[in-house]
Amino acid sequence: LRIAPALETLRSLPQEPTVDLAFIDADKPNYLAYVNELVPRMRPGGLVLLDNVLWGGAVIDPAADDEHTLAIRACNDAVAADPRVECVMLPVADGLTILRRLP
């Protein structure tokens, strides 16, 4: 058990790929930072799950410009273009993205 800010905790983990599954449901402005800390630590085929990626539909509303919406939108765009992972977004509930670490 580690009690500390999430980014600090992730950065303290070993750099080598030892993680099989990670679930992110945290402060939205740091979603992309969490992904960037986790992906190198994922074993090939490992999964990163991101919750709330539709953010009540706000991510597709061009007028939505609050901090959380902008952060989730930026994260969605970044993971979709990330060559380290395969990405699928499931439009269930508030949206779930599944990233699979490529070899």
What does this structure look like?
It is a single chain. It contains three helices and four strands. With 103 residues, the protein is an alpha+beta fold. Strand 3 and strand 4 form a beta hairpin. Helix 1 runs parallel beside helix 2.
Round the Cα radius of gyration to an integer and report it.
14 Å
Question: Which structural class fits the helix and strand makeup?
Answer: alpha+beta
Could you state the CATH homologous superfamily?
Answer: Vaccinia Virus protein VP39
Report helical residue fraction.
25-40%
Distance between the termini: 29 Å
Low-confidence segments, given as residue ranges, are none
Count of helices? 3
Instruction: Report the mean per-residue pLDDT as an integer.
Output: 97
CATH topology: Rossmann fold
The count of DSSP E runs of length 2 or more, i.e. the number of strands, is: 4
CATH arch. level architecture: 3-Layer(aba) Sandwich
What is the highest CATH level, the class?
A: Alpha Beta
Question: What is the helix/strand order?
Answer: HEHEHEE
